[in-house]
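Annex B. Sample input.
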Amino acid sequence: MIKSRWTSALVWLVLSPFVAWAVLRLGGWTPVWQWIALVAFTPYVAAASAVPLLLSLGLRRWAAAAVALVTSVALALVVLPRHITDHGPLPSGDQRLRVLATNLAVGAGDTASVMRLVRDLKPDVVTVQELTPEARDRLDDAGLRALLPHVVDRAKSGVGGSGLYSRHPVSERPLIELGAFRQARGVISHPSGHEIEIVSVHPCAPSYDSRIPCWDTGLEALPEAGGQLRVLAGDFNATLDHRPVRDLLDSGYRDAADLTGHGLTPTWPQQGWSRVPGVTIDHVLADRRMAVHAFSVHALPGTDHRPIFAELGLPTTAS
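Annex B, continued. Sample output.
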């Protein structure tokens, strides 16, 4: 009898953290600031939730098995759709907008590799995060402005710089700057007749307690979908498991990686930069009126982030 009780206690001890994780993730609560960083690893927890389920079944602890099954299913329903291609309706004509986003890690990203990506992928717009004046000058010397001549330059020393490089004319919008992190904005005049707002996304990283307000307000400051066509592209420092990103999606955006079945492809850190398991914190969020035809993740030496690329389809009728 004593052995049986200890066995049951062990099963519940193993299961409890997974139940708590599922409740917090589904409820959107933040019990402590560290949870903001931890919730990014929900896909790994979802996979590991099979352990208490198998353990409880193997030991014939049926009540625990029922709770474990509900927990695993709940986490799977959150995570697995990101691995399934679901382009949804394609409400667009033949006009495309090709978007590349890259974080240069305080300007250290390899210039030649950036230029190779631009020449190979032929983006209409590139959003750059952690753009320093020195990195900007190197990119200019390498010919980036010759390929994408319309620029919103908000370069800055340190991690806070940002910029937009566009093939088409661009009008700058008011800068979003919180906690010394700049998020450049501009409206692109596309040949299709569409005016499309682009934001180079980069809020603070929620790496310690004092930065949480900066991270939260930096994401809240991003424009919601609706009215004018918009694309938010860059380093969100957040995954689809963070409430602010889900709120943006609820407003009318769609995540390009999620729709194309690449929503679990890690974008940070690149191999060799850290032993932290990879997470998906770089995104292209497109207005739901835009189709998502392609998405890909690439390598870039010199930076901890992997650049992301999306090919979007524009609606037939200009806004």
